[in-house]
Specification:
alpha+beta; Archease, Possible Chaperone, Chain: A, domain 1; 2 domains; three-stranded antiparallel beta sheet; two-stranded antiparallel sheet; 5 strands
Length: 254
């Protein structure tokens, strides 16, 4: 659905009104409305954080994540009392502020925040807050390669030059494809983007590179994350080209 359709407008206004009502409940001296189940509390904490502090549609060069652990007292029937909603939210805001203020640089903004639960015990709910800051120069819609981005041209040979590392198993093509496929979007006039109901996936054993995973909703003939690919034997160049950061940025915007 595109911005401006009646169904989209209705859904947007419904979500926004629910977030505002939750914020009023947290700030009200009259804590009425009953207790919340755990899933509902997590949804609204996360939605309120992103509504208040996240700027999802801004340019960035780098993303920096940080995870915080918090706890929340539960009622006897394992629900979240409306009386503690605001206190827990304030702890989340304090953690987010600490992360933001402790990150160097002036060009920075919160991209998103994810609230999740790692379980409960003895009427105590264990919460994880994962927040991501976007930093860097905002004028480049695909971001920029930095001074460490020396990459071999192809065949997943990894980094080269002063940052030589053949164990990464990526190359200049992978890096360019990722940035090309992940521009920063801009909302239509009068709209803003913010996240609700985020899911964080933890990968054991190394970094996750989204370009290695297909889009399950894509039904076309070609894989959606590849501009082109090659398999089998190919003719090698006389030497393995090492693409420096200036050339990487040139190819990205040429």
């Amino acid at each position: 659905m595109q911005p401006g359709t009646n169904s989209t407008v209705s859904n947007y206004e419904n979500i926004e009104s629910r977030i505002k009502a939750f914020k009023e409940l947290m700030n009200s001296n009259l804590k009425e409305g009953g207790d919340l189940n755990i899933d509902s509390a997590i949804f609204y904490w996360e939605a309120a954080l992103n509504y208040d502090y996240s700027i999802a549609d801004s340019f960035f060069t780098c993303l920096t994540p940080r995870r915080f652990s918090l706890t929340c007292d539960l009622t006897r029937d394992n629900k979240v009392s409306v009386e503690v909603l605001g206190d827990v939210y304030d702890q989340m805001v304090d953690s987010l502020s600490s992360f933001y203020n402790g990150t160097a640089g002036s060009n920075k903004h919160v991209m998103l925040s994810d609230v999740s639960s790692s379980g409960s015990s003895n009427q105590t709910l264990f919460l994880d807050l994962t927040s991501v800051l976007g930093t860097g120069n905002y004028q480049w819609p695909y971001g920029r390669f930095d001074s460490t981005d020396y990459w071999f041209w192809a065949w997943d040979q990894g980094k080269c030059g002063p940052y030589y590392d053949p164990t990464i198993h990526l190359d200049a093509i992978d890096q360019l494809l990722y940035k090309i496929h992940h521009p920063i979007s801009h909302p239509a006039q009068g709209w803003r983007y913010y996240f609700v109901d985020i899911e964080t996936v933890t990968h054991q054993g190394g970094a996750i590179y989204p370009i290695l995973y297909p889009d399950e909703n894509y039904s076309g003939e070609w894989e959606p994350y590849r501009l082109f690919s090659a398999s089998g034997e190919g003719e090698e160049p006389p030497e393995q080209p090492c693409i420096n950061p200036d050339d990487m940025n040139y190819y990205l915007y040429v």
